[in-house]
Design brief:
Number of strands: 7
GO biological process, one term: phosphorelay signal transduction system
Organism: Fusobacterium animalis ATCC 51191
InterPro entries: Bact_response_regulator, CheY-like_superfamily, Sig_transdc_resp-reg_receiver
CATH superfamily: Response regulator
Protein name: Type 4 fimbriae expression regulatory protein
Helix content: 40-55%
Keywords: Phosphoprotein
């Protein structure tokens, strides 16, 4: 199955980025990868991205920062927040700020695949 949807994975952990990308590509999606908010912004500016799956906490930056930038840049792009450090407060904040969904990372990348 091939789709026309492009999904950007933003995570500073290489293993999670690779795992999400592999799964999405096997399902027929076009997957882009970014290790930082800065890199994600450049990819979004240069490509048609339908959905961003972003980690909440990264080195010196947050997925919430990216969420705000994306919503100002293009309201059509869906945002899904993932984190290993989830709280009710961060989930509520992400959804109120425009995230489509919020998931907790509960496994190591190897176990997810």
């Amino acid at each position: 199955m091939t789709t026309n949807y492009s999904i950007l994975i933003v995570d500073d952990e290489d293993d999670y980025r690779e795992m999400f990308s592999l799964i999405l590509r096997e399902k027929g999606y076009h997957a882009y990868k970014a290790a930082s908010v800065k890199e994600a912004k450049e990819i979004i500016k240069k490509n048609k991205i339908d959905v961003v799956i972003t980690d909440l906490i990264m080195k010196n930056e947050t997925g919430i920062e990216l969420l705000h930038w994306v919503k100002n840049y293009n309201m059509e792009i869906g945002i899904i927040m993932v984190t290993a450090y989830g709280t009710v407060e961060t989930a509520v904040q992400a959804i109120q700020d425009g995230a489509y969904n919020y998931f907790i990372k509960v496994m190591t990348p190897v176990l997810c695949y």
